[in-house]
């Protein structure tokens, strides 16, 4: 059976959105999963329609920051992106912005992820499997991705 998988992010892709896309595509190949894969931006009509169907809107950490009235250390995030990390484990097969990701990226943005649902935002990166939002707001672990794809 073919899985329908969407990764919804920003354009150009940020490290988190790009990492999720690459991990999903690589895992699909590794596991032999037939996928109808789509990469969408959070402003695409299909992405917005999906969010609206569950009473939410799509957005970024900056949108959540503004709506929730919190402050994120964007300079720290920029510094993290400028220093190549020694992980994730699959770093050697990654290319582009995904190579700049580290768990600290998600740690810096965790306050946004924690408040996204409360302010009605599906925060990028967003993973949709067979029409259901299974995760949003951070990069899930490889084990989580594997379980959702299988």
Q: How many domain units?
A: 1
Q: Report the helical percentage.
A: 40-55%
Quaternary structure state of the chains depicted: single chain
Number of strands: 6
Structural class: alpha/beta
What ranges have pLDDT less than 50 throughout 5 or more consecutive residues? none
Q: How far is the N terminus from the C terminus?
A: 11 Å
What does this structure look like?
With 150 residues, the protein is an alpha/beta fold. It has one domain (3-149). The protein has helices spanning 15-31, 45-53, 61-68, 74-82, 103-116, 142-149; strands at residues 3-9, 35-41, 57-59, 121-123, 126-129, 132-136. The strands form 2 sheets. A 4-stranded mixed sheet has the order 2-1-5-6, with helices on one face. The chain is globular. 31% of the residues are buried. The model has no long low-confidence stretch (mean pLDDT 92).
Q: Top keywords for this entry?
A:
about 150 residues, alpha/beta, 4-stranded mixed sheet, 6 helices, about 45% helix
């Amino acid at each position: 059976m073919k899985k329908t998988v969407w990764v919804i992010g920003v354009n150009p892709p940020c490290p988190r959105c790009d990492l999720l896309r690459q991990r999903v595509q690589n895992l699909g190949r590794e596991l032999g999963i037939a996928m109808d894969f789509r990469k969408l931006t959070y402003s695409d009509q299909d992405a917005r329609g999906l969010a609206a169907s569950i009473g939410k809107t799509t957005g970024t950490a900056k949108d959540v920051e503004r709506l929730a009235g919190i402050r994120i250390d964007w300079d720290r995030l920029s510094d993290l992106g400028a220093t190549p990390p020694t992980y994730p484990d699959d770093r050697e097969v990654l290319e582009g912005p995904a190579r700049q990701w580290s768990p600290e990226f998600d740690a810096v943005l965790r306050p946004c992820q924690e408040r996204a649902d409360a302010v009605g935002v599906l925060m990028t990166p967003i993973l949709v499997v067979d029409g259901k939002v299974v995760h949003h707001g951070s990069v899930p672990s490889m084990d989580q991705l594997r379980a959702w794809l299988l």
